[in-house]
Design goal:
Layout lengths: L1 H29 L4 H13 L6 E6 L2 H15 L6 E8 L6 H12 L10 E3 L17 E7 L1 H15 L9
Parallel strand pairs: 2-3
Antiparallel strand pairs: 1-4, 2-4
């Protein structure tokens, strides 16, 4: 059992070193000052998740979603096969679920195979349904499971922002 624990610790040290290397690569990329890269990183900083291994970006603005996916493709060569789309809509749009899904998939140029299960937010019995007719296409979540990509983004954000966040590498 001791060998297994030692192996696990060794793997954790290796994984930490890989995350640090990816952040260093992100910082180097940021020093190039490419505007699309700056904009994409800042969008992720503002609207993205803070996961260690997954890029999650959620928004209701179609132009922002389209730009972010384009950023992933052009700046990081993320293939379509790694991009997943999840739609989130309110109950009053449930009858249009397929239309909403198709809207987001068409917008970012992905097939239905990249679609994850749509989330429908139901109104509670206490709700006054004040959200009616807002966000006609709900929100769209773009997900890419790629530790190296996340860490490169974190490195670039730190370089652009002029700060260090140790917790982003841990």
């Amino acid at each position: 059992m001791g060998a297994r624990i030692d192996g696990s610790r060794a793997n954790a040290v290796i994984a930490l070193e890989r995350r640090k290397e990816a952040q260093a690569a992100g910082k180097a990329r940021a020093k190039q000052g490419e505007l699309t890269h700056v904009a994409g990183c800042m969008l992720f900083w503002a609207e993205g998740s803070r996961a260690r291994n997954t890029v999650d970006f959620v928004n209701s603005d179609p132009a922002m979603i389209k730009f972010f996916v384009s950023f992933l493709r052009t700046c990081y060569a993320v293939p379509d096969a790694k991009i997943a789309v999840t739609c989130n809509l309110f109950a009053d749009h449930e009858s249009r679920q397929r239309e909403v899904e198709d809207f987001w998939l068409t917008l970012v140029g992905l097939s239905r195979t990249r679609l994850r299960k749509t989330v429908v937010n139901r109104y509670s019995k206490y709700s006054q349904k004040k959200r009616r007719n807002k966000l006609p296409y709900g929100t769209c979540r773009i997900t890419v499971c790629d530790t190296q990509l996340v860490q490169m983004l974190y490195g670039a954000i730190q370089e652009y922002g002029g700060f260090e966040r140790e917790e982003w590498v841990m």
